[in-house]
Amino acid sequence: MERVTHDGRDTAYRVSDRGGDGPTVCFVHGSGGSKDVWKAQARLSDRFPVVALDLSGHGDSDDVDAPAASETLAAYADDVAAVAGETGATVVCGNSLGGAVALRVALARDRPLDGLVLAGTGAKLAVAEPLLDALATDFDRAIDLLHEPDRLFHDAPAEYVELSRADMRACGRAVTERDFRTCHAFDVRDRLDEVATPSLAVVGEHDELTPPSYHDYLADRIDDCERATIEGAAHLAMLERPAAFNAALSSFLERRSGEPE
Description:
By secondary structure, the protein is of the alpha/beta class. The chain is built from 9 helices and 8 strands. It has helices at about 70-85, 95-110, 130-135, 140-145, 160-170, 175-185, 210-220, 235-240, 240-255; strands spanning about 1-5, 10-15, 25-30, 50-55, 90-95, 115-120, 200-205, 225-230. An 8-stranded mixed beta sheet has the order 1-2-4-3-5-6-7-8, with helices on both faces.
């Protein structure tokens, strides 16, 4: 594990590099998550160096004193910019909240990108009131809601579900609620035409949290945006169907970098 210090805090990240000469990809997790959700993407590192970070307050990273919504999103974007600067990453891949962070980086950061991958996310990320209420009053209930069928997972092994629940508990109620409230406030629908980075919108076939229609919207309104569906998966497609997710990602990157598929 590596760390980069910026803005008065340390951000932790993991690098996997088995000699890949493609662009370095920085992976950004979603609400209540950590870099560990991207473990299966390390398999790509013989072609593309892989970096996965913990956003502030998650995993091994220092927290940030910021209220939910725009200030938290800006802080998380600073985390990504710092790690990308340290590692030379030129592709950002974000899931859910991480997709919002990736869009923020693409729209508001002075950092040239070769690719933007928006996985299980959207231009607007409204959160259902029952989940927001549970996050404020009954964290166990909130975790249960997120692990109902076709939310985080479609048909994942039981151990994946238990690990996901444990990771969310480790992150804690306060940070997880901050994440979801930041998602709830996020809306860049009127700015998608400003995204100048070649993009891929990829979604699990059964994702009810950020359904396929969200990704159709991204593909329709971002000038240069491809679209992919991962069959047999829900919100955490990169964890539930890693081979299919990695194939979609590597195909996109290889086409964009001119490498043979």
